[in-house]
Amino acid sequence: MGEESSLQLSTPVEALPGVTSRQAQGLRALGISNLGWLLAHLPLRHERIEAEATIDRLEPESTACARGEVTATRVVRAGRMPRVEAVLHDGTARLDLVWFNQMFVRNAVMPGVRLRVQGKVKQRGPGLQMVNPKYEVLAGEEEPPEHEARMRPVYPATESFKSWAIERVMRTAVPLGLPLIEDHLPEAYRVERGLPSLREAYRMQHTPVDEDEVKASRRRLAYDEFLLLQLGVHLKRAHLRERLRAPKLKWNKGIDAHIRERFPFALTPSQEEVVKEIAKDLSREVPANRLIQGDVGSGKTVVALYAMLMAVASGAQASLMAPTEILAEQHFLSISRMLEGSRVRVELLTGATPPSPEAKAALLERLAAGEIDLLIGTHALLTDRVRFKDLAVAIIDEQHRFGVVQRAGLREKASDEASTPHVLVMTATPIPRTMAITLFGDLDVSSIKGLPPGRQPVTTRVVASTGRATVYEEVSRRLAKGQQAYVVAPAIDGGSQEELPLGGGDAAGEKATVKTIRDVRTVAKELETTYLPGAKVAVLHGQLARATREEVMERFRRREIDVLVATTVIEVGVDVPNATVMVVEQADRFGLAQLHQLRGRVGRGSEASACYLIADPTTEVGHERLAVMEEVSDGFALSEKDLELRGPGEMFGMRQSGLPPFKVADLMKDRQLLLLARRDAAAWVKASPRLGLPEEAMLKRRMLKAYGEHLGLGDVG
Ligand code: ADP
Ligand code: MG
């Protein structure tokens, strides 16, 4: 038997036939220790490269590839676009190179450097030229071999161990590793879906012959990522349904009428529908796990209150958890107002409330004794000391800031082991369907569509900072009519931040960046002295004491304040119909979802409202994102657009979710595949609720390895 037959995926890279010790060292530096990890080191992308030719054989108007030595360079700054020029010689002829508007090229392309270039060949006078060619510096004693036309994988690499060097190792190692790869999908199953085998998929990632192979392998690997996550999610859900019981809440005409008496308005048809879905959920003993999405101002709070009061009607408790203290306070105030004169006992629990440890302890005691019906708070609700007597409904507002892990925490708040509360999650930022499936695949989804009657659309304008004065003139006109305004700035107080001791780092640099950020205090001062003299201006931010914040909000509500200058603390929950204009300073520093939230603070009364986004974006995408705000007023459409422009990595949610990022799959590009994987996973778990068949063992092991910990599947495995 030869040594190859004893190869395993666990064989260390040093022991791989054909891999030199220098190569092994390079791999180790990339964290690749064995054959399995080597195969899993997937290319970032693939590039089509042309066959290399000597310069004398290059054809004008063809896309070609050549290598040679740079003999001269020149930087030309004249004209509209500065350029870097270079001359390349390979012993057969000369090729002129020019890069427009890429001055950084001069740092790499210098006389004496050897280059490989690829680009379109142009005839220029008697000679040949390439404009803006791609180039690769061929440094070091070892030059990459000449190549034929093909797809070239571009690997994550290091300075000393470049992509082409990794590619060389792959050429020897991949054929050794492929036979060791076992597929976790049955052949008939994958063939039915037009997916290649895992072995083929890896072969085509590392050594594709053409674009089609790259596509086919991506499709298989992306499908696998989606499928494993969806299987995990569905398995968890099956487990929940099978093993855990939630209180069956009473629901009848009398209770329904009693709850509605508390609401100062009739529900919209969409709210009605969602209330019905929720009530149905809560009157079963299967624990509800439902996402309630609705645009800003769509009226999720009363829907939540309906669910909470259903718990109270059955003699049980309910909780509402909000992401910030201000929002928790807002909920507490508006819910208390609606429950005024009823016997329902509502309390607020946040880091700051109740203020004294004694009062806090007393509150917790009453909670455990069942003397509090509704508890509203921040994630302080999740701390160990919080014990309910009989928690039947747990509501989480603004899901995207919490994530899967916190939801599990709330479940544990039930008093006895076999019982768990119904969980409702409200998101004020509608999330794209693909995100919802990925992050909250284990949830049922209800959507509140449209806004309550009487809402005016909000006109949005993006204005450069040079137009600031005009914006505030418009604000001033509105104030003259008795209306009120919000102004939002990205920081609280630049001045005081500068005085803070800056632990480590480049203190001077940090100061410089801090200074350029517009802060609440500076903006407020500018308004009082320059733009809106005579207006009553107040500031609101998270560093103010709770009592002060409440007082400021109350005064704004009573119209004793004209302009509220704030950080994003007013993003959620604040509801003052007389405020008709929102100005956001340095709007490019905020996410689209956030801007949409902010904009939702106006347009709540009968007056037409406006939102001004003051910004000087420096990038193309920056411009485009703000332009989208002008055109799109629907939160769902906006979040789709945000996902498209920024990619899921940057989106709210993905990072906070605690889930590992996908390596291959792309939530935008691979939507169809995601839907397929979701359907497949649901069907699979339905047929085999524990994935317990021998032929499913490998699939289950891989799923648990990838997502078990994140999804809390410990007890499922
Ligand atoms: P969000 O979904 O952003 O949490 P809220 O629950 O705060 O929205 O509701 C926004 C505003 O609309 C509140 O002032 C609320 O009282 C009001 N509202 C909600 N539902 C209705 C309705 N059916 N009719 C009239 N006003 C409503
Ligand atoms: Mg809300």
Number of helices: 23
Per the CATH scheme, the topology name of the largest domain is: Rossmann fold
Poorly predicted runs are: 495-515, 650-654
Bound compounds, each kind once, are:
adenosine-5'-diphosphate, magnesium ion
Rounded to the nearest angstrom, the distance between the terminal CA atoms is 39 Å
Strand order of the largest sheet: 11-12-10-13-14-9-15
User: What is the residue-averaged pLDDT?
Assistant: 86
Gyration radius, in Å: 31 Å
Helix content: 25-40%
Structural class: alpha/beta
The assigned CATH architecture of the largest domain is 3-Layer(aba) Sandwich
Just give the CATH class of the largest domain. Answer: Alpha Beta
Q: Tell me the count of domains.
A: 4
User: Beta-strand percentage?
Assistant: 15-25%
The largest sheet, given as strand count, sense and whether it forms a barrel, is: 7 strands, parallel
Number of E strands = 21
> What is the 3D shape?
globular
- The CATH homologous superfamily of the largest domain corresponds to P-loop containing nucleotide triphosphate hydrolases
